[in-house]
Design goal:
The protein has 186 residues and is of the alpha+beta class. The chain has helices at residues 72-84, 106-121, 128-136, 142-147, 181-185; strands at 2-3, 8-26, 32-52, 57-59, 89-95, 151-154, 159-162. The model has no long low-confidence stretch (mean pLDDT 91).
């Protein structure tokens, strides 16, 4: 944890790869049952958090085509604030490196990093299971990022078994297109 004297915490939000993906069914709520292996990459967004005592949550980095209140980072912060009952707030800055709609979990990773950072800054002392469950309400990939370990995943991606796959080199190409996860699965 990189905390400076002004209570600014800076953390990475890493990308992930699905080493393979099997769709095993579709649930009544529209989500798909799957089996996959998540592997983390050392390529990451960077988020900085500065404690506020007035309860405001501000993402100070504008993201094109993503309204402030719809951003997963803001939604994660507000959900944790609501669930914990804290009166504290936060200023957040994002150095966006991971492509949006690239299938490498950038938004989910940003949300998970937000939950982990604020749990620390707000001194909530929540267990990782509780943070992961809260993360699942934001997106199916958020729990694996909260847990921070490569995993075999089942269900919608929330049933996680830690694994230690070999760590070969990967070349990740990023075409100039964005793909909606919801559209691909539908």
């Amino acid at each position: 944890w990189d905390i400076d004297p002004m209570q600014r915490l800076t953390l990475p939000a890493p990308a992930k790869l699905n080493l393979w993906l099997h769709i095993t069914g579709r649930r009544a709520d529209g989500y798909h049952e799957l089996e996959t292996v998540f592997q983390f990459l050392d390529h990451a967004d960077q988020l900085s958090f500065e404690l506020r005592d007035d309860g405001l949550i501000r993402l100070n980095t504008e993201i094109t085509d993503v309204p402030h209140d719809s951003n997963l980072i803001v939604r994660a912060a507000r959900k944790l604030q609501e669930q914990s009952g804290t009166q504290l707030g936060v200023d957040i800055w994002l150095d966006k490196v991971l492509p949006m709609g690239g299938g490498i979990g950038g938004g989910s990773s940003d949300a998970a990093t937000t939950l982990l950072a604020l749990q620390h800054l707000w001194q909530l002392d929540w267990p990782v299971d509780r943070l992961a469950a809260l993360g699942l309400t934001l997106g199916a990939d958020v729990p694996v990022f909260v847990r921070g370990h490569a995993a075999f995943a089942q269900g919608v991606g929330e049933q996680l078994t830690p694994v230690d796959p070999e760590e070969p080199w990967y070349v990740v190409l990023v075409p100039q297109v964005s793909v909606s996860t919801a559209e691909i699965f539908s």
